[in-house]
Structures are given as structure tokens and as C-alpha cells.
Design brief:
This protein is an alpha+beta fold. It contains 5 helices and 6 strands, in the order H-H-H-H-E-E-E-H-E-E-E. The chain folds into 2 domains: 3-79, no CATH class; 83-151, no CATH class. Helix 1 (15-23) packs parallel to helix 3 (47-61).
Length: 155
């Protein structure tokens, strides 16, 4: 059983309650808890509240994002666009992904960062319409985007 299967349902009614519960968890478990709660109680918080909670939980959970891609993509499509800063993308964007295949959710707009992360693994290159980017994170110095690999071109 993976940690994604662990039932944790708080029945959040307010953003404050959700944030308090997430703050009480180890940082690496927050994104998984958010996804579990959303799967079980999707309508209880506003889309804007879910966006803010996702931005809060993202930095420490990013490594586990591909553990449950189906539910993660459903959540992201529901709350998109997610941004940690008010940056807006436009046009068609070249994106890069280090890994065993090009089917991951996490991509970067920075080819050098993908190369550094690869550590000998292949680098996949694709393009995506800015309107298909589900989330964009720049606050920690990364230029990371979350996308559904099925929306990519040139892969």
C-alpha cells in the first residue's frame, strides 16, 4: 500500500482549518494529504482555497507528484491555473523533462536545470501551449511547470 492509499479525511470546511491540519503534518506528507482530502471531499473548499493550499504543499511534495498521476492531474485540472507568483505564460513554450520517459507531470522551462537534474538520464524536449500549463512555479528559483504529457507536442 502506498502513502497515497492512506485514508486521511478531515472534512475541511474552511481554508484555515485545512491549512492548520496541513501544517501539523511532516512537510513531505502535505501534498499527499491534500490530494487525499480533495479526492474525498472535493466540493467543500473553493477553487481559490485549493490553489493556495496546493502552492503551500507543493515545495516539499514535488518529488511524489508522479506517484498518483491520474488523481493529481484531475486535481490540477480542477484548480488550474496554479501559480506561486503572478506570472503569466503565453504562446507555445519549449519545456524539458529529465527522466526515464517523457510521461511525467513535472517539466521545466529551463533546459540547463533539466540537464543538471538528469544526472545521466535522458532529457525529453516538447512544446506545450501556455493555456495547457496547469501550474507554474518560480518562487524557489525554479521555472517549473506541471502539465499533462498528453497535451504536449513534439514528444
Amino acid at each position: 500500500m502506498s502513502s497515497w492509499d492512506t485514508p486521511t479525511v478531515w472534512n475541511w470546511r474552511t481554508y484555515e482549518q485545512a491549512l492548520s491540519d496541513l501544517e501539523g503534518l511532516p512537510p513531505g506528507e502535505r501534498l499527499q494529504a491534500l490530494l487525499t482530502e480533495w479526492r474525498d471531499e472535493a466540493e467543500l473548499l473553493s477553487i481559490e482555497d485549493m490553489r493556495k493550499l496546493f502552492v503551500y504543499a507543493w515545495p516539499d511534495g514535488r518529488e511524489s507528484v508522479d506517484d498518483d498521476p491520474v488523481h493529481m492531474l484531475r486535481l490540477l485540472r480542477f484548480i488550474a491555473p496554479v501559480r506561486d507568483h503572478e506570472t503569466y505564460l503565453s504562446g507555445t513554450l519549449p519545456i524539458f523533462h529529465a527522466g526515464a520517459d517523457g510521461h511525467g507531470i513535472r517539466w521545466t522551462l529551463d533546459e540547463a536545470a533539466a540537464t543538471a537534474e538528469a544526472a545521466g538520464a535522458p532529457i525529453f524536449r516538447a512544446t506545450v501551449a501556455a493555456s495547457d500549463v496547469l501550474a507554474h512555479f518560480t518562487g524557489d528559483g525554479r521555472n517549473e511547470v506541471l502539465v499533462d504529457w498528453q497535451d504536449l507536442s513534439g514528444l
